[in-house]
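Question thread 4412

I'm putting together a teaching handout and wanted feedback from people who do this every day. The idea is simple: show students a protein as raw sequence, then show them the structure tokens that encode its fold, then repeat with a second protein so they can compare. Below is the first pair exactly as I plan to print it.
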Amino acid sequence: MRQNPSFTLADIAEIRRVIEANPWATIVSDGSEGLVASHYAVLLDDDRDDLTIVAHVGRPDDLIHGLGERELLVAFQGPHGYISPGWYGDVQAVPTWNYTAVHLAGVPEILSPEENLQVLDRLVDRFEGRMPDPRGMWERPNDPAFVHRLAAGTVGFRLTPTRVVAKRKLSQNKPVETIETVIGELDGDGPFANPALAAEMRRAQDARTNAAGRNAAS
């Protein structure tokens, strides 16, 4: 992902927020037969406060990706959507696409079976916990033999990235009035309404406003 200073996302807490809110990631590596991509749910490592992530792949994806042997790219896609040039007013403009994305790259560490089981347990709890009657991985009718048999078909990994590219392209290069108009359109009921993207733009705009206020006060 090409970086642009106007759209750089460098705040670790914000990058963690994007990962936490968008756990369905694309995992890419340069395999023995060329580029290969897989899709899995990914979690931040509970024991770290950096950008270390944990996840698993199903066998034989571990062999296809050369897991633990070569660099892995893990891409997270946040809210994104179409931006009409008509929202800019009577000025020269073309359509664009606003988005938030995070790319983490590095050589992953393979987890032990015990660690992998803990990650799988966390993964189930993370999503099943939202259900009105959550059903954990170890709850009946599952039994330990069933859980261990399924876990054996997966390989867990931990990735502490050595390269991070995070981008928040949310019309920051436009005048404040234009940004507010775009947010209003995304929050509306038009064909390209996108409340999640509007909220992301509002968050970025508030951060810019607060930063400008701090700079003016210093």
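The second pair follows. I'd like the answer to focus on this one:
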Amino acid sequence: MTRDDEHLLRRAIELAAAARAAGDPPFGSLLAGPDGTVLAEDRNTVLSDADITAHPELKLARWAARELDPAAAATTTMYTSCQPCPMCTGAIERSGLGRVVFALSTEQLASLKPEASGTGARQEGPALFDEARVPVEGYYR
């Protein structure tokens, strides 16, 4: 971790504080080019936008996929106040970002939150393989 990394990570933490001050969950992120120039930044707006997917990491991954060619995306670094959740991790991987630097780990975040209630949605499957594969088969070749 370089001093530049620490500087940019502190900016992500400032964005998290701004999200909290606005009444949203306290998460912030930014995307920097290879020279450290901030390309885009965002904060969590899950409550203010009434959108459960309005995580800053997801919003920046979507921005990068729209605005950067794959070679440019691969040279970027996302700085984020907390380790990305699985939804955001998937978007980051699909957008082709080169690196992620985070402040709080998922485990550290969990230690700062009350225990979650409920068990989440039950998932069932796989099922109907022969039917489900028809629209997918050959697409990824």
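Top answer:
Good format. For the second protein you could add a caption like this: The longest strand covers residues 38-43. Strands lie at 28-32, 38-43, 77-82, 99-104.
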